[in-house]
Every structure is written in structure tokens, then in C-alpha cells.
Write a structure and sequence with these properties.
- The protein is an alpha+beta fold.
- It has 4 domains: about 100 residues, Nucleic acid-binding proteins (OB fold (Dihydrolipoamide Acetyltransferase, E2P), Beta Barrel); about 150 residues, Bira Bifunctional Protein, Domain 2 (BirA Bifunctional Protein, domain 2), CATH 3.30.930; about 140 residues, GAD-like domain (Gyrase A, domain 2, 2-Layer Sandwich); about 100 residues, 2-Layer Sandwich (BirA Bifunctional Protein, domain 2), CATH 3.30.930.
- Helices cover about 30% and strands about 25% of the residues.
- Helix 4 crosses helix 15.
- The relative contact order is 0.11.
Length: about 600
């Protein structure tokens, strides 16, 4: 080894020891005769002193060193002179008196500072990702990711789970997002697909009698990227036999509670994890992955609105719509410009507009409010009692702002859901040190697609219906609830799973509801149906997004910050310049030819 100690592990107990270190020059300072180098490796930073009276040759090497040069140093650990200690460093009480130094590799001037957390344009960071990863924050993110995955493996191993790797080259399934296709050289005109998840394979492992399986699985989806989505991603894939929903939810709650306590003990949790049905989540938050760190729940005001003379409310209700709202704490002093901005936001989400009612802060309670204290274009169509009733239902008080939308129920809920999140961000209502995990249950099994004119699986076609809803499958499938559950955290979906169908008869029935012919079912899913006829046990599982989980624990805003070599928003790799053209010979070997785009 070119070093026998790490830079970050040395302290006062090593004073007098002869050490050999190697790393990068973090900073260089020339104090006349003495040259000081902050030497950095993966574990930390230590100060090295180059004194010409100790070694002239070593001092000459120090004069050549610049930031990010790679150097090996041999020397003696000494206490820093009194008054020069650096409490910000773990090694701040000692320094290395260099006796020998060797330049291992010089460096060009980096395109951005490595030793400072300065703002750097993302495309530049991704082009030079190997330099970006030297920065302390990025290094810590990768360390955190490692600790999280190691904890998960150890946790599940202690509970008798077996880790099984499944294939990357599989058959393209008909459902879900677009696949990444891989042409076969051997079988002309045929393709593999990269797995969107190991769904079918983990179910077959249950048929195989594994009973408790997990995998840190690589998954691929050809869909547009965003802050929490990449073309390739990592998930904890987990499946169990002979279980009910509670067994899986309790396991995941124990896993996350234990994980946070070990790798992020400074973070707080809501315990036990709240449970919301899909209907409750949509009614209260307008979204199935709500941030429950703050309130501002959506409330139905339709009954109060129906008693007003406001035409917008009346027309919405007459057409089967709803009038709902939230409130903004302390928002009564919003300017016209701020209110117009909120109005544009909800219009962009499909709503007809936003009705705002400012409650004057002069009153101490709602009962003391007067019409003179209220500002709203709708005020002349509402009585004082109606405004007080709306405010009371929304749990607002004087000084707050009522935000109300009328229209189709699904549009109103979606717009208010986004508006609620936006107000939470603007007003900083969410505690950044709180991880608010929650379970969402009782999702609809199926959803009707107007464009295709057919039913689609809300989760995937292997999700089991709730037993009590089975009689509804034939006549009112829209009312059937699936044994499907999600785990959410701080406004993100972290994972989802379900109890699976494990009998071929029910699985065929679901495929038929989804519009597959018998021939298509046998061609696409025959292997699964045949497996179910060989004693498939009841089973279920869940998939957890590792990237999103690490992002939340690291306090980052995008999963690109917790992935070593991510793609850009345009799904390109700036370090490797991918995707890239291939040669005509490669295309010929794969029996492919390219067609010019029209």
C-alpha cells in the first residue's frame, strides 16, 4: 500500500508516530519558509507541514504542489502549536511534519472548486462527475447510500430473507411504461427488454418455494426524466409467501424506523406510520402521495356555497361539481400580484380560477369579523355568516386567506392538492427534520381509459382484488378495491406493492377484463398461469425506490444528487456522451438498419 493510515483517522494519540499518507492536495498555503498542505483522502483532511530545515528535497516538492495534485507524504505526527488548532477538523489538534514527499500525479486546474460548496451549473458537474464526486457533500451522499443499502441487507438477512438476482434481459411485457429494447444478434428480428421491475420473476420465486425473497434490483423505464425519476434506477424488491397486508406493512415500518435510527438519528419520525385509504388521501389532500408534515387539509364547502348567491359556485354544483378550499396561514396581507400568481397556478392545473377571501387580522376571533374587514371579489355574493362558516370549516382564523376552487370534483381536488403543496413550500410549513412516512391503502383495482376504451390496472394486472369486492368484478369493476398499498414520505411515493393473484382462474378473469384475448393471454402470460397451477402459495410484496429514499434522507431535492453517474433531464450521460451512434458493422450484426426521420 502507498499509505498505512487515512488522513481522517489521525489524532493526538498518534503523536510521535511515523506515518505514510497519500491523497489529493485540498489547499496549499505558503508562509514564507514553511509550506502548509491540507491533504485529503476519502476519510478526511490532515495538515502537512513542509519545513526546509527538516527536508529541503521535500520542501521543493511542496513548492510544485497545487490543488488536486496527488501526492504521497511520509512524516511524523506532531501536536499543532498552541493556538493554531482547528476545531472544525477531526484532525485539527495535530499535523504531519513531512520528511519525504513524492508527486504521484499532477492535475489540471479543475473546472470548478472541489474544496468549496459553491453553486456549479449542473451540466458542468455531470460532465466532470468524477470531480464532482470528490466534493464533500457528494461523497457523503454516496457513503449514506452505501450505509442504507447495507442496513437493508443486514435487516432482511436477520429475518431469514434470501437475496436472489434475477435476469436483466427479459421478455417485453405489454403493460407499464415503455421498455428499453435490446436486439438479439442470434435471433434475427427478436428483442429482449430491460426489466421495469422483477415483478413476474419474484412471483415465480414464491411458486418455487423461496418464501422470503429480496433483491437490490436495477430497473429500467423509457419515460421522461424529472427530479425524482431516472431511466435506470434501483429498488428494494421484496416478496413473501403466506402473508396478509399487515405483515408486509409492519415489516416495512420496522425497517424504516430502524434504518433512520441508525443512519440518520438526527431525523424525527411520526410513529406509528399514519394509514390513509386512497379515498381519504384524495379527499383531504387531492393527491395519493400527500406531504403530511403539515395540515391545510382540503375541505368540502359545497353545502355552504350552495346557499350563497355566487353564480360560479351555483353553476359548478348544478353540473355535478364541488366547491372546496384550503387556507393560507397569515395570507390576508397578500398583494394583488401574489393573488394573481396563485390564480395563474390553478388555471394552469385545469381549474377555472381561484376565489380568495382575506380575513382581516384586526379581529381576535371569527365571531368578531365584520364585512369591512373582509377583502374578496366574491364578498358581495356571500353573507358574513357564510364566510365565517367557510373559515371555520377550513380551520382558518383572522389574518388568514381562504383559497377556494369550484368545478369538476377531480379537477378541484387535483388543483387544490398542488396549491396546498405550493403554499406549504412558500410558507415553509414542513419541518425539514421530520420524515413523515405514511401508508396509502385500498386503491381502485382498475381504471377506465377513455382514449383506449378499456379497463387498465391501476397497479399491475397481478394485484389481487379485495375478497369482499369480488362480486363487483362482473358488473361494477370500477368499485373494486385492490389489495394494493403505497408507502409515501414528505410528498413522494417511496414504494408500492400488493397481495398478488395466485390462482390461474382469477388471473385469467382479470386479463379478460383488461381486454386481452385468450390467445394474447397464453402468449404473453402463459408461463405465469401455468406456474399458478403447480401449487402457487398466497403471496405479496413491495418495491421501495432506493434512490428516492436516499434523496430524502440526504436532504436533497433530486435523485441525481445520490446517484454516482446519473442521466440529465434529457436522459443523456454527459461524462460518457451517451447515447451515441454505433457503427454500420454493429447494426448489421444485429440485423438492423436505421430509417431517416420524416
Amino acid at each position: 500500500m502507498l499509505k498505512n493510515y487515512s488522513c481522517g483517522e489521525l489524532n493526538k494519540k498518534y503523536v510521535g508516530a511515523e506515518v505514510t499518507l497519500a491523497g489529493w492536495v485540498d489547499r496549499r498555503r505558503d508562509h514564507g519558509g514553511l509550506v502548509f498542505i491540507d491533504l485529503r483522502d476519502r476519510e478526511g483532511i490532515v495538515q502537512v507541514v513542509f519545513n526546509p530545515e527538516v527536508s529541503k528535497l521535500c520542501h521543493r516538492v511542496a513548492n510544485e504542489l497545487r490543488s488536486e495534485y496527488v501526492v504521497q507524504v511520509r512524516g511524523r505526527v506532531a501536536p499543532r502549536p498552541k493556538g493554531t488548532e482547528n476545531p472544525r477538523l477531526a484532525t485539527g489538534e495535530i499535523e504531519i511534519i513531512a520528511e519525504n514527499a513524492e508527486l504521484l500525479n499532477p492535475s489540471q486546474t479543475p473546472p470548478f472548486y472541489i474544496n468549496e460548496e459553491a453553486e456549479v451549473e449542473e451540466s458542468l458537474r455531470l460532465k466532470y462527475r468524477y470531480l464532482d464526486l470528490r466534493r464533500p457533500r457528494m461523497k457523503e451522499n454516496l457513503f449514506l447510500r452505501h450505509r442504507i443499502i447495507k442496513f437493508i441487507r443486514d435487516f432482511l438477512d436477520a429475518r431469514e430473507f434470501i437475496e436472489v438476482e434475477t435476469p436483466i434481459l427479459i421478455k417485453s411485457p405489454p403493460e407499464g411504461a415503455r421498455d428499453y429494447l435490446v436486439p438479439s444478434r442470434i435471433h434475427s428480428g427478436r428483442f429482449y427488454a430491460l426489466p421495469q421491475s422483477p415483478q413476474q420473476m419474484k412471483q415465480l420465486l414464491m411458486v418455487a418455494g423461496m418464501e422470503k425473497y429480496f433483491q437490490i434490483a436495477r430497473c429500467f423505464r423509457d419515460e421522461d426524466t424529472r427530479a425524482d425519476r431516472q431511466p435506470e434506477f434501483t429498488q428494494l424488491d421484496l416478496e413473501m409467501s403466506f402473508v396478509e397486508e399487515e405483515d408486509i406493512l409492519n415489516l416495512i415500518e420496522e425497517l424504516f424506523t430502524s434504518l433512520v435510527a441508525v443512519v440518520k438519528p438526527e431525523m424525527r419520525l411520526i410513529k406509528p406510520f399514519p394509514r390513509l385509504t386512497y379515498t381519504e388521501a384524495m379527499e383531504c389532500y387531492g393527491i395519493d402521495k400527500p406531504d403530511v408534515r403539515f395540515g391545510l387539509e382540503i375541505k368540502d364547502l359545497s353545502d355552504i356555497a350552495a346557499e350563497t348567491t355566487f353564480a360560479i359556485f351555483h353553476s359548478a354544483i348544478a353540473e355535478g361539481g364541488k366547491v372546496k378550499g384550503i387556507y393560507a396561514p397569515g395570507g390576508a396581507n397578500y398583494t394583488r400580484g401574489q393573488l394573481d400568481e396563485l390564480n395563474r397556478l390553478v388555471r394552469a392545473l385545469g381549474a377555472g380560477g381561484l376565489v380568495t377571501i382575506s380575513l382581516g387580522a384586526q379581529a381576535d376571533s371569527l365571531s368578531e369579523l365584520t364585512m369591512g374587514m373582509i377583502k374578496s371579489v366574491a364578498a358581495k355574493y356571500l353573507t358574513l355568516d357564510q364566510i365565517r362558516d367557510m373559515a371555520s370549516r377550513l380551520e382558518a382564523k383572522p389574518g388568514d386567506l381562504l383559497l377556494i376552487i369550484a368545478g369538476k370534483p377531480e379537477v378541484v381536488s387535483a388543483a387544490l392538492g398542488e396549491l396546498r403543496c405550493e403554499m406549504g413550500r412558500r410558507l415553509k410549513l414542513a419541518d425539514p427534520n421530520l420524515l413523515a412516512f405514511a401508508f396509502i391503502t385500498d386503491f381502485p383495482l382498475l381504471g377506465w381509459n377513455e382514449k383506449s376504451g378499456r379497463w387498465e390496472a391501476e397497479h399491475h394486472p397481478f394485484t389481487a382484488p379485495r375478497d369482499e369486492d369480488m362480486p363487483l368484478l362482473d358488473k361494477t369493476p370500477e368499485k373494486v378495491r385492490g389489495r394494493h398499498y403505497d408507502i409515501i414520505c414528505n410528498g413522494y411515493e417511496i414504494g408500492g406493492g400488493s397481495l398478488r393473484i395466485h390462482t390461474s382462474g382469477l388471473q385469467r378473469k382479470i386479463f379478460k377484463l383488461l381486454g386481452y384475448s385468450d390467445i394474447e393471454v397464453d402468449d404473453l402470460f402463459g408461463h405465469m398461469l401455468e406456474a399458478f397451477d403447480y401449487g402457487a402459495p398466497p403471496h405479496g410484496g413491495i418495491a421501495i425506490g432506493i434512490d428516492r429514499l436516499v434523496m430524502l434522507l440526504a436532504g436533497e431535492k433530486t435523485i441525481r444528487e445520490v446517484i454516482a453517474f446519473p442521466k440529465t433531464q434529457e436522459a443523456t450521460d454527459l461524462t460518457f456522451k451517451a447515447p451515441s451512434p454505433v457503427t454500420e458493422q454493429q447494426l448489421t450484426e444485429l440485423h438492423l438498419c436505421l430509417r431517416e426521420e420524416e
